[in-house]
Each structure stands twice: as structure tokens, then as C-alpha cells.
TrEMBL record:
The chain crosses the membrane at residues 16-33, 54-73, 85-113, 146-167, 173-192, 241-259, 279-299, 311-334, 340-360, 372-396, 402-419. It is a multi-pass membrane protein. GO terms for cellular component: plasma membrane. This is MFS transporter. It is found in: Cell membrane.
């Protein structure tokens, strides 16, 4: 028996943990394809329903009302019921909400459908953060986090192409929404079949991989604070938690601002038609996807080479915030459409390094609080999702220009820089 056990441990590790996170990349990409579909279709919907810019901003914002509200409950569900069931159920339910949006006959009913989409999409990111803590070792979580969060720019990039193609091929934004929703429902059932809560539970994980992850977790857990309060509200006592939530808010101010308003900006300011918008949006957000994977790879390799967590994370976040802010600031002064697309691509490439924020819940949180800490972070972030579409809509309607909106995004980039440097990435909180 000992020989069999030794042979199992000496066998090459399976790499199922990476396949699980490729699955999460796919699900988050679908998540963003569905949520971004309204932005892509907005010129057509605005014409059909005769919507003002302020009303368009309200519709684009409505998703985030329930999405933000359900972040902490979603994290609690992931901690209590484990991430597998939460991820699968959320995917099926938001696919259903996306499908129902196709049958809306007014701005009011479309707003209700978007509220449903927000509530059902909300749990997947906190549950994904919990999955990262369960499946990845300390020096793999950068790549795990950026694979998880990389679905955002990938979904935004593919969403622009896929939804645009569906709308033009089917000659209907409603049929495009139905196809996207049904595809998501199917993906949710497959996710339940493939994902497991821990490596030990997965039938394709061998003993070597399970033991490798468990040994890394045992070493990490041995460094947890001895006296834990167990009270979630105690998180508000710590500067790192506030900086985490506010930093993610600043990040999302820029990202969601571009996600919701960039197609309209390219159309109104630079004269892009729907096909040109699709191509430009793909280039811009795919740059963000590539940048996110680059950031995760640098982070893990640097830590493997002996870099301290504070040095690695603060340096990478500072580079990301400074270059993204300079790029988005420059967009306001550039008239050439190609240069605008290049600058926006630069913005997204470096901004998405901040997908590394999804390491922070597992860095700061103890094993039973990672999900809820991810929910707290994403609640802060999605306050930006709620406010930004409305703020930009009011700015554009009041000034007739996107200049102040771009300055608003640049200011958020400065906030991201300051908050990211206020987090202690080497200290678990005794909660």
C-alpha cells in the first residue's frame, strides 16, 4: 500500500485546476457577452423606444443596481453552499433573464429584465474568488484570478462581434438576445457537470495534484491568525478592506464606463457605424484580455522568484493605473479615429492588470471568509457600475460632449493608483 501511495505522489500532476479556470474564463466571458449586449444594441433600442441619453444611461445602469445589491449575499452563498452549485445556478438563471429581455415591449419592461440579469449574474464572481482559493496555490492565484476576471474583457470583445453579427444576420436585436440567452443556459448545465468545489472531489484529478494543492493550503492556513472574530462586519475596521473596495470601484468606473458608453462614443464622436463599432470594440477589449493574462503571469513568476507580495502587487497596480490613466486622458484630445482606438486599447491592456484584485480576497481573508470578502470587494466595485452610466449620460446630455466624461475616467485612474497602494498584501485579517 505504501508503494502504491508513493507511486501516486511521484506521478506527474494532472492539470485539472487550469481546465477548471478555463471553464470559468468561458463562463465569465458569457457573463459579459450577455451584459454588454444592451450596449451594442442600444443605438437600435434607443431608436425603437425613442430614448433620451439620460434614459439610455438609466437602462445601462439598472443592471448594476441588483448586481451590486447581491454581491455580499452571493459571497455568503458561496461560503455556505460551496461555489459549484452557486456558479451553475447563477449561469442558468441569468441565461433565462437574458432570453426574457428579448420579449420586452417598452423601456420599463426592459429595465425590469436588466434588474433580473443583474441579480442572477451577481454570485458568480464571489464564487469564482472562492474557487480560486480552493483550487490554486498561493503562487498560482495571480493566473487564476486573471483567468477568472479575464472573461470580462474577452466577453466584451467577443460580445461586440457576436451580438453585432447576430443582430445583422438575424436582422433583430430580440432574436440575438434569445440566442445568447439559450447558449448561456446550456453552458450552466455543463458547468455543473464539470466544476467541483475542491480538487479532491474532481474525478479527473490524480493524487499528485490533489496532494500538491492540499499541502500548499495547509502551509497557508497555518499562518492564519489564531483568534478569529467570525463577525463579517469586523472587516470594516481594516484599511485594506476599504482600499480594496474603493480601488475596485475606481477600476470599474473606467472599465464599466467604457463598456457601457464606448460604442455610443465611437458612433457619435467618430462616426463609426455598427460594423465598425463591433470591430473597434473587439480590438480594444481583446487588448484588455491579453493584458490581463500578461499581468497574472508576471505576478506569479515574480512571486516564484522571491518577490514579496507588497512589492509585486503595488508595483504592478501602479504601472497599470499610471499608463491607463495617461491613455484615457489622451483620448480626449485626439481626433483621429485610429489613434483613439489605439489609445483605448492601451487603456484596457494595462487597466486589466488589475484583474489581480481577485487575488486580494484570498490574500486578506481566512478560509471561511473568502467568498464574502469577494462580495464586499465587488459591491464596492459595482457602485461604480450603478453610477457611471448615469453620470456619463447626464454629462453628455448637459454638455453635448464626452470630454468631461473622459476626464472623469482619468480621475478614477488616479484613485485606483492611491487605493491599490493602501492595501497590505501580506497580512491576513483576523475575521
Amino acid at each position: 500500500m505504501q508503494q502504491v501511495g508513493a507511486a501516486a505522489l511521484s506521478a506527474p500532476k494532472t492539470g485539472v485546476r487550469w481546465k477548471v479556470f478555463l471553464m470559468m474564463l468561458f463562463l465569465i466571458a458569457l457573463n459579459y457577452i450577455d451584459r454588454a449586449s444592451l450596449s451594442v444594441a442600444m443605438p437600435l433600442i434607443a431608436k425603437e423606444f425613442d430614448l433620451s441619453p439620460a434614459m439610455q444611461g438609466l437602462l445601462l445602469s439598472s443592471f448594476f443596481w441588483t448586481y451590486a445589491m447581491m454581491q455580499i449575499p452571493g459571497g455568503m452563498l458561496a461560503d455556505k453552499y460551496k461555489p459549484r452549485i452557486v456558479i451553475a445556478a447563477a449561469t442558468v438563471l441569468w441565461g433565462l433573464s437574458q432570453t426574457l429581455a428579448a420579449f420586452c415591449g417598452s423601456a420599463t419592461t426592459l429595465l425590469l429584465a436588466r434588474l433580473g440579469l443583474g441579480a442572477t449574474e451577481a454570485p458568480i464572481m464571489p464564487a469564482g474568488g472562492k474557487l480560486n482559493a480552493n483550487w490554486m496555490t498561493k503562487n498560482e492565484r495571480g493566473r487564476g484570478a486573471t483567468l477568472l476576471d479575464g472573461g470580462a474583457p474577452l466577453g466584451a470583445a467577443l460580445g461586440a462581434i457576436i451580438i453585432t453579427w447576430l443582430i445583422t444576420s438575424l436582422n433583430s436585436w430580440r432574436l440575438a438576445f434569445i440566442v445568447a440567452g439559450v447558449a448561456t443556459i446550456i453552458a450552466g448545465f455543463y458547468a455543473y457537470r464539470f466544476i467541483r468545489n475542491t480538487p479532491r472531489e474532481h474525478p479527473s484529478v490524480n493524487e499528485a495534484e490533489a496532494s500538491y494543492v492540499e499541502a500548499a493550503h495547509a502551509a497557508e492556513h497555518s499562518n492564519e491568525p489564531a483568534n478569529l472574530s467570525g463577525r463579517t462586519m469586523d472587516f470594516i475596521k481594516y484599511r485594506s478592506v476599504w482600499c480594496m473596495a474603493l480601488g475596485w470601484l475606481c477600476f470599474n468606473t473606467v472599465f464599466y464606463g467604457l463598456l457601457t458608453w464606448m460604442p455610443n462614443y465611437l458612433n457619435k464622436v467618430h462616426g463609426f457605424d455598427i460594423k465598425q463599432m463591433g470591430g473597434a470594440t473587439f480590438c480594444i477589449f481583446f487588448s484588455g484580455f491579453v493584458g490581463e493574462l500578461v499581468g497574472g503571469w508576471i505576478s506569479d513568476k515574480w512571486k516564484d522568484a522571491g518577490g514579496s507580495a507588497n512589492v509585486v502587487m503595488r508595483t504592478l497596480f501602479s504601472i497599470a493605473a499610471i499608463i491607463a490613466t495617461a491613455s484615457i486622458f489622451s483620448v480626449a484630445y485626439v481626433k483621429d479615429p485610429l489613434t483613439v482606438v489605439i489609445l483605448l486599447s492601451s487603456t484596457l491592456f494595462f487597466l486589466r492588470w488589475c484583474g489581480l484584485y481577485w487575488c486580494v480576497p484570498s490574500i486578506l481573508g481566512t478560509r471561511n471568509k473568502v467568498g464574502v470578502l469577494g462580495g464586499i470587494m465587488n459591491l464596492g466595485g459595482n457602485i461604480g457600475g450603478i453610477s457611471v452610466p448615469i453620470i456619463v449620460g447626464l454629462i453628455v446630455q448637459t454638455t453635448g460632449s464626452y470630454f468631461l466624461a473622459l476626464m472623469f475616467f482619468a480621475a478614477a485612474g488616479v484613485g485606483l493608483l492611491l487605493c491599490s497602494n493602501g492595501i497590505d498584501y501580506e497580512k491576513k485579517l483576523p475575521v
